[in-house]
Amino acid sequence: MGAIWFWIVAVMLAIYVVLDGFDIGIGFLYPFLGRSEEDRRVMMRSIGPVWDGNEVWLLAGGGTLFFAFPLLYASSFSGFYLPLMIVLWLLIGRGLSIELRAHIDSTVWKAFFDGMFFFSSALLAIFYGAALANVIRGVPVGADNYFFLPLWTNWRVGAHPGILDWYTVIGGVVALTALAVHGALYLAVKAQGDLEERALKCSQIGWIALCVITVVSLIATIDVRPSTLDNYKADPIAFAIPLLVVLSLVGIKWFAARENAIAAFASSSLYLVMMLVGAAVGLYPALLPSSISAASDITIAKALSGSYAIHVGLIWWFFGMLLAAGYFAVSYTMFRGKVPADAEGYGH
Amino acid sequence: MTALLLHRLQFAFTVTYHYLFPQLTMGLALLIVILKTIALKKGDERYHQAARFWAKIFAVNFLLGVVTGIPMEFQFGTNWAEFSRRTGGIIGQPLAMEGVFSFFLESTFLGLFLFGEKRLSKWAHWGAAFMVFVGSWISGFFIIVTDAWMQHPVAYRLLPDGRFMLTSFWELLLNPWAWLQYAHTMCGAVVTASFVMAAVGAFYLLEKRDVEFGKIFVKAGVIAGLISCMVQVFPTGDLQGRYTAKNQPAAIAGMEGLFHSEKGAPMVLIGQPDIEQQRIDNPLVVNKVLSFLIYGTTRAEVKGLDQIPRDQWPSALPLLFYAYHIMAGLGTYFVLLMVVAAAMLWKGVLFRSRWILWPLMLSFPLPYIANTAGWMTAEIGRQPWLVYGLLRTANGYSVHVSAGNALFTLLGFMGIYSVLSILWIVLIYRFIERGPDSVRPSSAPEGFTA
């Protein structure tokens, strides 16, 4: 049962990253690809009707984490207090900038929210990447199952790291690069003409950076936490995961070069999922490794809720997911295809 | 300022601020469905336009509810880690269900409702509005289930390490406290929306502009307001009050300022509680009414604070007393105002009676205050317990998050939320100032030039 809920939470997180990931990616690329007012409107309209639903995966996933693994929720959220709070503030800024930009026809108003959109999206990507890197690196979980990390200490990975050290910064860069490529490809799917071309070209440039930083991050991970490979060595079928990461990178390049934006976007989605799955496999069954001692790791066994709760939860969760799948099918079908030249029916 | 106080202040501040938005969202969602139903049944285009106008306000309000609501879900973990560790197996369920069921529902259909009017049939668009209403009311339900469990724990087993284990899913959802609290809370949201709608209508009538819409908004607001204000007092307020008296005697004693147990206890209408001397200064009382209201007989004894151990008294007694009295006092005023306005509506003189339109216009902030005061009553009344009778507030916060960190983020929230307030006021004012005729169906917000 613990394994089931581990993978449920992991999958919900992965879906969040794939969906809100392109919202964030477009936010980061906003000043670079959005050269004209028309460009910026198209970029906004490409995510306008769907961004809020995408963001809900974070809440649904967080809530699920809360009830399935309350100890992990309590420990990690209080331990990562400041970065989490900053993420909350960035989410506020991001949401406001998407929804309020078009409300007043003023250069100053739009420029303000354009800036907020870029700034909050870029930092969200970096914080998310750093957060995952923190989980992989491990944190000083004590005997009482809690910890607290300041934002930074000496930028070194050691007994007393901060949230930000050289390893987690790499994690932030990976996330930013990956989501930028992801967002560019989504935009290529939704945009037309010149913007579509530039989005594709942007994804090609980003792809090079992504390949480099992916390799760097994998090497860094093995250096910082060699035990990541334990599950892989025990079950070599797991090496299919890094293989799929490579394949997905190849796919991005291959399809983008042939201007097949949809397939390239699918490959980018696969990349994100496989990187996350790879991290999950490296961690399992630990949820949050302790840098003090392995005995203090927060594991599935330690954190799992009571048996009745997780069994009954599976029932409503299953129905909920069916419904959610239905809503998403409706939503994405309704707003499928290229973003039209006028705003009709898209707001923003 | 201790860490405990700062964690409490931050949660109290952020949740109070957040709830300013959903109360209007949930109430307005219902009123918009009603407007659209009338529009479809009567074939009256003005009601369609009215719904479109309120949808604009709804959208901004909904957004602010979302961005201020996300911090709430995470704040259990960040600032109340020990509470979360212990109770997550139970209250994590309704919170997760809120995300999985209502948030997906709301966000999907909100997009369709706001932007899809032209590409949907009239009834499909009504359906989208209806689903937004359902989604938001389901959201409210799951939050209430969570708070109701804290007020009146059910369906649990307590383990030696302090964790609560869920023993029955349905008992959790069917907690009687939850249903009473839900009825009273949702009715309170309809009160807010009714007053806001009536206020905008009254403004237009007083200003002698958009008169047709002014009449529609006043009529809808007053009718919905009359029903919701009365139901809020009786039966929902009465039922919740009596249930609280049975299950949280300390809360009732604190709310009513009853220091000493009494048979035929009086109801204090107003006064200043003096904790040190254990009395109410210069009280205005109505004899025997409290006993009657709670137990149905003037001979019943109401338990006073004297029968409750000092370390189980709600910690902020004067605040509890005033929160309750402000809520009840305003609630009384609401009923009076709406009864008078409804009578005049019935007589056909409301729309030209400036002396009643003025209070209708000016009263719209008061339901916000009443709803807030009501929540303060509930949450302060529960003190010193976080989970009533089982876990003290002082034992639930994140001990590793220092006072300095908590204050830093509290100040951050205060700053950001101040900016949000200004944005909200500016945007809502613009919609009202431009009026219902300036809204075009399902197009981009004002300012868009294709």
Provide the number of structural domains of chain A. 1
Instruction: Report the radius of gyration of chain B as a whole number of Å.
Output: 23 Å
Largest sheet of chain A: 2 strands, antiparallel
Main beta sheet of chain B, described? 2 strands, antiparallel
Strands, helices and their partners?
The complex is a heterodimer of chains A (348) and B (450).
Chain A: H1 2-33, H2 37-47, H3 51-68, H4 70-79, H5 81-100, H6 107-137, H7 166-190, H8 193-224, H9 230-234, H10 240-257, H11 261-283, E1 286-288, E2 298-299, H12 300-303, H13 307-334
Antiparallel strand pairs in A: 1-2
Helix pairs in contact in A: 1-2, 1-3, 1-6, 1-7, 1-11, 3-4, 5-6, 6-7, 7-8, 7-11, 8-10, 10-11
Chain B: H1 3-42, H2 45-79, H3 81-115, H4 122-151, E1 156-158, E2 164-166, H5 169-173, H6 176-207, H7 211-247, H8 249-256, E3 262-263, E4 267-274, E5 279-286, H9 289-295, E6 301-302, H10 317-347, H11 354-362, H12 365-382, E7 385-387, E8 391-392, H13 403-434
Antiparallel strand pairs in B: 1-2, 3-6, 4-5, 7-8
What can be said about this structure in brief?
Chain A contains 13 helices and two strands, in the order αααααααααααββαα.
List keywords for this structure.
heterodimer; A: 348 residues; mainly alpha; 2 strands; B: 450 residues; 7% strand
Structural write-up:
Chain A is mainly α. Helices cover 74% and strands 1% of the residues of chain A. Chain A has one domain (2-334). A two-stranded antiparallel ribbon of chain A has the order 1-2. The mean pLDDT of chain A is 93. Chain B is mainly α and 450 residues long. In chain B, 71% of the residues lie in helices and 7% in strands. Chain B is built from 13 helices and eight strands. In chain B, the strands form four sheets. Chain B has a two-stranded antiparallel ribbon. A two-stranded antiparallel ribbon of chain B has the order 3-6. A two-stranded antiparallel ribbon of chain B has the order 4-5. The longest helix of chain B has 40 residues, at 3-42. The radius of gyration of chain B is 23 Å and the shape is globular. The interface between A and B is large, with 73 and 77 residues.
